[in-house]
Amino acid sequence: MDPAMTLTLYSHPLASYCHKVLIALYENATSFTAERVDFANPGSAAQFLDLWPVGKMPVLHDSATAQTIPESTIILEYLDQHHFHAVPMLPGDPDPRLQTRLWDRFFDLHVQDPMQRIVFDRLRPADVKDPTGVAEARQKLRTAYDMVEHRMTGRRWVAADAFTMADCAAVPALFFAGIIEPFSFNHRNLIDYFDRLLARPSVQRVLDEARPFFQYFPFVDHMPDHFLKGPA
What is the pTM of this model? Predict the structure, then answer.
């Protein structure tokens, strides 16, 4: 039996951290079973919470090793050790490997986190919104953009000479953050990098699968038409 067929990914097509893992799986054509988590469905929610009571997606289960692996970064490191072949998510050399871990955390903590704070605030009732917190989150995004802009000077990928886990992390972080707080004309390197990410077939596949769910994104009114409709 193909060992990759032992993998089940619990995720949702609109969840940004799930996109990070899916991109890596598609990069390597890794076989897996997709289990969509629907918290509006009591049965689906109960099954997922029984597996991982924290309730955060994605979660990977490997029946071959009887292991349940949460957290997108840990999932990618696990897959890199046991299931990846053509496109390693972590370089073998120590220095680019460390840079990959650094930039993976950067996109999760300094782009995804403030982006999600803004999204969650839009979902709050008017009397409990946090305009100060939103303003601070937007400033954090602008600072992060400036750092990526500087980092991408003369570079093709953010952490190493080849596509890595850090680039998987960059895709959903920049995709959703750029809708909420658009990149400026001063971010030419960042924009070029983002365009290279969007051109990868693995990324296009993830966005195609997510597209029917974009209508539920709280900032769908800010989403460019080419994101909503797909390539012409």
Answer: 0.94
